[in-house]
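On clarity, I found the account of how folds are encoded harder to follow than it need be. What matters is that the chain and its backbone geometry are given together, residue for residue. The format is easy to grasp once an entry is in front of the reader. For illustration, here is how one protein appears when written out as sequence plus structure tokens.
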Amino acid sequence: MPSYINMGPTPTHITAEATTVDCHKQVRTWRLLRAIMELLIPTCNCTFVHETDHNQLPTTINNPKPPPFSSASFLTGTIFGYKKGKVKFCIQSNSTSTNPILLLELAVPTTILAREMRNGLLRIALECSLGVGPTNGKTEELLEMPVWKMYCNGRRVGFAVRRKPCKADMEVLKRMKNVVVGAGIVSGKEIGCEEDDIMYLRGNFERVCGSSDAQSFHLIDPDGNINQDLSIFFIRSR
């Protein structure tokens, strides 16, 4: 026999009052979520281009002609920063490259980000609006956008800013050129800073391009040595 829950004598009230919803904010939030999900869950028709061997033709899946996007490649990523300063995220073609593809100064201090990473899970979402190049009128490449709204594990934390690597940044990267995967501390004295040391996490990242307005970088930890699930999403709204 079916069972019923006795709700008691209390009557049920139905309110007819209007509820205010910030539709604009909700739409933007769902748009950001949808773009992230498209990067996390590729469709069966996606084409993955592996660029680890430049002497071979790209490997494709279900499509002999790769589209301009929906591709994947593998790069070196480094999160580093002074203990008393803000953290930076750097992407290089490999660990010894002297010409970073991207250097971002994130909105959070190094110690705060390290605390967020203690649980082994870190999701950073960076969102920007469509921009136009200052000279030729063409749309800027996604990773060339100068300013990003930053979300860390679902919380809005401020802005991330694209920076040109300074001399100190290049010295830090030079000190870590022999580190392919790992985490540690670089002595500030080695780069001329007597007052503070630099914390870093470095590893291989898989770069996934969903479209001209959506890219993501996912830390690869095949042996479990880093013990960190880390993804960084770049989303541009139009």
Summary: Helices lie at 23-40, 110-116, 167-175. The first strand starts at residue 71 and ends at 82. The two ends are 56 Å apart (CA to CA). Residues 1-27, 41-70 have pLDDT under 50 and may be disordered.
